Prior knowledge:
Arc Repressor Mutant, subunit A; globular; 20 strands; 5-stranded mixed β-barrel; 6 domains; single chain; alpha+beta; 4-stranded mixed sheet; about 15% strand
Amino acid sequence: LCIQTGKTVKDEKRLKMSTDEFYFRSPDEMKQAFRDVPEAILNTRAIAERCNFDFALGKSLLPKYDLPNGVSPDLYLEGLAADGLKAKFRGNPPANHLDRLKLELQVIKKMGYSSYFLIVWDFISYARKKGIPVGPGRGSAAGSLVAYCLDITEIDPLKYNLLFERFLNPERISMPDIDVDFCKDRRGEVINYVGEKYGSDHVTQIITFGTMAAKAAIRDVGRVMDIPYAEVDKIAKLVPGHNISIGDSLKVEPQLKELYDNNPAVKELLDIAQRLEGLSRHAGTHAAGVVIAPKPLTDFMPLYKNPSEDTVTTQFDMGSVESVGLLKFDFLGLKTLTVLEKTVDYIKQQGSEIVLSEIPIADEKTYRLLSSGETTGIFQLESSGMRDILVRMQPNRFEDLIALLALYRPGPMAWIDDFIKRKKGETKVEYELPLLKEVLDETYGIIIYQEQVMMIANKIAGFSMGQADILRRAMGKKKQEEMEEQKEVFVKGAVANGFPEGKAQRLFEIMEPFARYGFNKSHSAAYAYVAYQTAYLKTHYPVEFMTANLSVDMGDTDKIVKLINECRNMSISILPPDINESEREFKIVGSRVRFGLEAVKGVGTAAIEIILKEREGKKFETFEDFMSRIDNKKVNKKVTESLIKAGAFDSIYQDNLFTARAKAMDTLVSSSKANGFGPGLFGEGGILDEAVKPWDENTLLNNEKESLGFYISGHPLTKYRKTLSSMDVVPLSYVEEKDERADICVAGIISEMKSKAKEKGITAYLTMEDETGRCDMLVFPDLYKKSADILKKGNLVIIRGQVFKSEKGAKVMAREMQSLTEMEISTKYEVALRCGDFKETAEKLVTIKKLLGDAPNGKDSVSFKFYLPEYCVIIASRLQPAGNFAFEAEKITGETVKIL
């Protein structure tokens, strides 16, 4: 109760139960309570005995797929698969593909799963016909040639040695499991289609229960018991890993056991936490699970209606649904598929065409990009750890990407260095047996995939692929008795095939740890393909690709900041929203990217639709024209104010943006005061005083931050960045990647601040931002006293401290702090001008001159780099750049302004 209500046990005013009788009474207690009406007990028991429902466990309850009269699911599937194989190979499929297809179809028919494949084929066909992006595969299903022929997957399993038996094993009867990725925005359409096809009472999503895990239980109980957070966090961190109970942690973690045995408070904390551990905290809808039943679902299980949503789910969780034998699918929403679709659309808008399934898989430029580590926006390869490995590995073939995705996980990461050395020829590749080269050649002699374990068992010990899959599962489960049995069978089989017994035993021992951490190659290959597609698009269509990413992540401020920073690194200019040019989403303008109107905070869909519709016939010529033409009920003063602050009216005024935005805001305020806000209300009170004072740089940037959630025209830190880089200051985005307790120096603007008075003084909780992202800071009382004058929202500061990590993310515990604005820093700008036309160049110079003034102090300065037909001239100046000079100059010249 305290956990739910956020109170402590000591709080006398907390919510309490009115009695101590909230528990299940024993039969004797019930008899005593109802001793005056004993028949009530007898009747209750009689009703309970009549309530009886037997679950028919162990059966597969597949829905029927409707087919033409007289056609069996087996024959229909066979025909579809054969036609698909012919289409893949233009009417001439190789013999090994024909043999594999025949084998798979026999197994599917024997196991009774032809209808299952037809159901999957049907809803994926629907998605493709409707233009809903579908992933190339997920999980072990990518190892099925039948799935490839039906366009359920896009990976040829024979090309990459993917095994059907890893997906469907005739010697281990279990339901097939095909998980499918859909575009996250349109996944619901596929679920609705399935509901319409099989009946809404036959289809629903699956429930999920949020339970209290070990660390969460410790933290919750610690808070309720009013134990200081630092102490509770220290105890919680002693729990090794996430999938381990408190009881098991006490057995394997000596420090935790010592605290439990010697500290009564810790013992009480852990004892209570253990009682709560595993309890359900809340019910929700599973992110992906969908169940399809052959009859109404209520014939098999109870249903649950979420009180906070108008949705119905199963009352059984995923595991129970499968135990009953019902058909379960994972319909996952993958954001990257939406990015791919939008990129293709942007490419089309630019007059080109691309078919993702036809891009070359061995493109040198793509592998050069991957090897550079510049992988922001690339699926699965964005993290700093991945970037570091890409630079060291220098991948040059698709198989390298498959291996990388399989290796970059706890456990196998230990083999990455060895893999890279072997790939580069720095370490000799040796095989325990010569025959292993055939299986392990592509991974330089290292067992990375579960499929490799299966192939070794098949080739060395003569296991069937079905038996090999059972061995693979046994190794993964780490059951000693089962392992000993499997080892004996493996060694006997190897000896029978002519291999020495000692070598066979050694090989089994080598396989064991690899099998434990080995990854499903089919899944790795499918996701490597998505990663490669994103890398290819970033390489060959960088503007379109980054625009798609920006549109998809419009609602994620942190991600947008990261993407804008990457655009600038790629020399892609980002333009503010424009009332006459912006669409709902981001759009491409030449080689630059224009902000979408939906990215402006406070501007809703209805307002955007009105603006776009009104603009169709005629662009807005002046700000007054805009205000007189739009519906002021939907596009009200608040919406217009947000658009002004974001820079959406800059192009209407023939001024720099400092003056343009000030004029627009002044007009809005003046007309509102004089006449109210609405169309046709511009009298004398709405006329603008031309002497309006332009905004300064801080006002402009702060207004951008308010309306967009980030800075676009510049950043308060930009002019300090060169100096900061020489001070070992790292971007805030690096904090998450640093080790626990690592020393770090960061700089940024204080965007949020809270302070809390404690016994030892005031502690401040800050959120700092820079061009790359944001991070929380903790300032303890001693430092707070010294730095109170600079600890204010909006101040630019440098902080030195230590990285502190928790389940909520990384923070910096500040040790030193100084004001950035009090440092003497000078900025030198270099403006590039391509002198093709003298008159045009002169006009650009005149416009740039308006942004410059005298610079008697010599702090900031500008130099010009003139690109003439045959040579280049650099001219230095003693002119002082105005605030936001770089952004304005880039708009005029179309070239990136360098900060030297």
